[in-house]
Amino acid sequence: MNANLMSELIAQLGHSDPMVSKQANTALVEMGATVIKPLINAILEGSENLRWQAANVLFQLNDPCCIEPMLEALKSPNLMLEHIAVEALQQFDLSALVPALIQALPNSHCSVQARIVTLLESAGDQQAVEPLVKLLETTDSSLLRLSIIQALGTLGSVQVMDAIKAFLDDEDTHVQKRARCVMEFLEKKSQGNLS
After folding, report:
1. What is the model's pLDDT at position 195?
2. CA distance linking residue 44 with residue 3, whole number of Å
3. What is the pLDDT of residues 129-184, one digit of tens each?
4. Using H for helix, E for strand and C for coil, what is the string for the chain?
5. Nearest residue to 62 via CA among 98, 92, 24
6. Torsion angle (degrees, nearest 10) of CA 89, 93, 94, 96
7. For the whole model, what pTM was predicted?
């Protein structure tokens, strides 16, 4: 593998011409695992555009070596990088990622938080319940409240009923409806009436 070619292609990922960037992306993906370490360095040290473009290539490579850099990317102020990181992480065993996802949750952008909530819901781990309730009680975003209430319903912990009850009169009618549905489900569960 020509290291100079690899470095040149990685630099081209951040090019202002989208065609140059796309061609570099395609060539790097074709190179496979040999480009992982240089791409990780680009995520850590590159320009904002290069960072998310490098993350995008790593996402396409779908290699477990990418998990740690993607978890780090969740802490980035670069919204595109955060989104690519969430997309990449959903390809892996979520149960192993729950603690890191919980840690990233309060510091991520609101739209990324909603996607992390969905990953936590999919992981089905009860350790996500308390952080989700905490975020539910503090967020201003109706979309995020809706996502969290849905996730809490899926996680099925009856201990969250009081927290969800507060949203039966939410300003957003979608949040109200979701809160009602989840409350009905959790009430049936608490009474042992679920089949």
Report:
1. 52
2. 19
3. 999 999 999 999 999 999 999 999 999 888 999 999 999 999 999 999 999 999 99
4. CCHHHHHHHHHHHCCCCHHHHHHHHHHHHHHHHHHHHHHHHHHHHCCHHHHHHHHHHHHHHCCHHHHHHHHHHCCCCCHHHHHHHHHHHCCCCHHHCHHHHHHHHHHCCHHHHHHHHHHHHHHCCHHHHHHHHHHHHHCCCHHHHHHHHHHHHHHCCHHHHHHHHCCCCCCCHHHHHHHHHHHHHHHHHHCCCCC
5. 92
6. -110
7. 0.84
